[in-house]
Design a protein that fits this description.
Strand content: 5-15%
Low-confidence stretches: 205-210, 390-394
Largest sheet: 5 strands, antiparallel
Number of strands: 10
Radius of gyration: 26 Å
Distance between the termini: 32 Å
Shape: elongated
Structural class: alpha+beta
């Protein structure tokens, strides 16, 4: 083993440790890996950032923008409306939800599809009396299956296509993934619909605020008595006087009720405050202010809402700016106009002081927010609403235009008229010019952490190949499977990629395993196509953990799942995929090429 090989393996081992540890987000880790590789000489300095101009990076960004255009047009909402016919049977609900998201994820960003169908799934569960846990994990897994269908279905497919172009001079085309991907997706859908959902624990339903968030235990009416020393003072002045941790979520002054009053609102004798605080902090608040307890009665969420304010549940996305921070550190009230009322994690309400809770991906937040800015606030914070929004008004022109633009791009790529990166960027630009998207939505729809990950890891993947590290790993795989048919090497490559994708981002798994697949093919003097296709399938099948893919993380909080719940359905799911995909790969992409 050469010195360069030792260094590249050391760098990748550290990267794997940091990816699994999760202390820093994967885009930061990938940048550190790239910079380390450049500093030690594994990546030439003048080539360190060429990955950000790679066709795969441009294509992924453009697909995300085009997916947002399809959402804006309302065509996806119309399709989601069909789910109301699924009835109350868990089997039918799972089959319809999983089937629709599988279809959508074949042509658009699967997280975008999740954003639309996650609240639909929650509402279906509530309406039928089923636990959301039996619907949401199948929904997440279906979004991963859909990525197998086409070139643009998932970033790993785009990455694998570019590796093939560098290897044999021609990339995989739009529907080259379909023969194998469709067979695997159908098999996965049938397994989930008939058997898989029955393996998921029926966790406590976290979708009903009345059951998940018992906020009445933390809401108290506080009276401003006559001759109180702070009467006439503003809420801000009261906050400066008291050392307690509390939130004023409502105020009643005579006949006037105000939800989330301004901090500059003066408090007059006889006013009643709706205060959120635990017992210890409430006592400190009363001692500091001289205020008195009001009527002893249970207060529900109706006391927090008004014509202008709403109380909603939202799930923290994997790329949210809230992650790792507290409500106090991000100053939610000042920055977003939001009051944090409750936090639930894994289906259980947290009872620690809310201002000190550090947010994690998948947390469910109960927030009080101005109704008119709700969508913008949630988007800015990086959260998805769990309440099903009303379907967009059908706008025939926008639906027809968006489908025509997106369909034309797909046909142009399938016919070989344009490379995928050019066609999809043209589609994104056309959607902006057609009024389907505005420029702000273009930039907010791009998943920048994934873009950074790809741009940083592509040069590292090349370094793995140029140093001979990929060839060394390929030789090790052949040493184990060399006495058997090439199918055994193919199966090993698929399984290794699948398990790697369970612990790191699927795009990173594809970047690292594609050179190894090419190395195995080269040593065996076989066509690289079946091995690249095995990497593509394996990289998109992260079913064992909630950290393998954003879709899995997004449903963890709303579904009330524990970390170990995923393998119950995920392990047999991966076994089904391996059994189905390997014969299909060999049949469609023979070793002889």
């Amino acid at each position: 083993m050469t010195g360069d090989q030792v260094m590249i393996f050391g760098v990748l081992l550290l990267a794997l440790i940091f990816f699994v540890w999760g202390r820093w987000r994967y885009d930061i880790v990938s940048l550190l890996v790239l910079l380390t590789a450049a500093i030690v000489g594994l990546v030439p300095w003048d080539q360190a950032f060429l990955g950000f101009g790679h066709p795969a990076v441009i294509t992924v960004a453009a697909v995300l923008v085009a997916s947002r255009g399809l959402l804006n047009s309302g065509v996806i909402d119309v399709m989601a409306g069909w789910l109301s016919r699924a009835g109350d049977s868990p089997t039918r609900q799972v089959a319809s939800l999983t089937g629709l998201i599988t279809l959508l994820s074949g042509f658009m960003n699967n997280v975008g599809a999740m954003a639309l169908l996650l609240p639909v799934g929650v509402r279906m569960a509530i309406k039928s009396g089923n636990s959301p846990s039996i619907l949401l994990m199948p929904l997440a897994f279906g979004s991963l299956l859909g990525g197998l269908l086409t070139l643009i279905g998932t970033p790993p497919n785009i990455i694998i296509a570019t590796f093939r172009a560098e290897s044999v001079g021609e990339p995989f085309s739009m529907f080259d993934f379909t023969p194998v991907g469709l067979g695997v997706a159908v098999a996965g859908w049938l397994f989930i619909s008939m058997i898989g959902w029955r393996l998921v624990p029926a966790r406590r339903s976290p979708s009903s605020k009345e059951r998940l968030f018992e906020i009445e235990n933390y809401l108290t009416e506080v009276l401003v008595p006559e001759r109180a020393k702070l009467a006439g003072k503003t809420l801000q002045e009261v906050r400066e006087v008291s050392k307690a941790e509390f939130q004023v979520l409502g105020l009643q002054s005579g006949e006037m009720k105000i939800a989330s009053p301004s901090i500059f609102h003066p408090l007059m004798p006889g006013d009643i405050l709706l205060v959120e605080s635990d017992a210890d902090e409430l006592k400190i608040f009363l001692d500091d202010t001289g205020f008195k307890l009001g009527e002893e009665k249970k207060l529900g969420e109706e006391a927090l809402s008004s014509e202008d304010m709403d109380i909603v549940e939202a799930v923290v996305k994997t790329d949210s700016r809230l992650i790792g921070r507290t409500a106090r550190s991000v100053n939610m009230r000042w920055r977003y106009g939001v009051n944090l009322v409750g936090v639930a994690r894994h289906g259980v309400q947290l009872h620690k002081r809310l201002g000190r809770v550090r947010f994690q991906p998948g947390d469910v937040l109960l927030i009080q927010v101005p109704r008119e800015v709700l969508p913008e606030v949630l988007s800015t914070m990086g959260c998805l609403p769990l309440a099903e929004r009303g379907l967009r008004l059908a706008h025939t022109r926008r639906i027809v235009l968006s489908v025509a633009i997106f369909g034309s791009a797909i046909l142009a790529v399938a016919a070989g008229l344009l490379p995928v990166q050019i066609a999809v960027v043209l589609a994104a630009v056309a959607m902006v010019m057609g009024g389907i998207l505005n420029l702000r939505e273009v930039y907010t729809s791009i998943d920048w952490p994934v873009i950074i990950l790809l741009g940083a890891m592509i040069p590292v993947g090349r370094a793995l190949e140029t140093t001979g590290g990929a060839g060394l790993i390929a030789e090790s795989i052949l040493a184990v499977s060399g006495n058997y048919t090439p199918v055994v090497s193919l199966a090993m490559l698929l399984v290794i990629t699948m398990f790697l994708s369970d612990i790191v981002n699927n795009a990173a798994a594809a970047v690292l395993m594609a050179p190894i697949g090419l190395g195995v093919a080269q040593f065996m003097n076989l066509s690289p196509d079946p091995f690249l296709m095995a990497v593509a399938i394996g990289a998109s099948c992260a079913f064992l953990t909630p950290i393998g893919h954003q879709s899995n993380t997004l449903v963890m909080g709303p579904g009330g799942y524990q970390f170990g719940d995923y393998w119950r359905m995920g392990l047999p799911m991966e076994m089904v995929i391996a059994v189905v995909s390997i014969p299909l790969i060999v049949l469609v992409w023979p070793f002889s090429g």
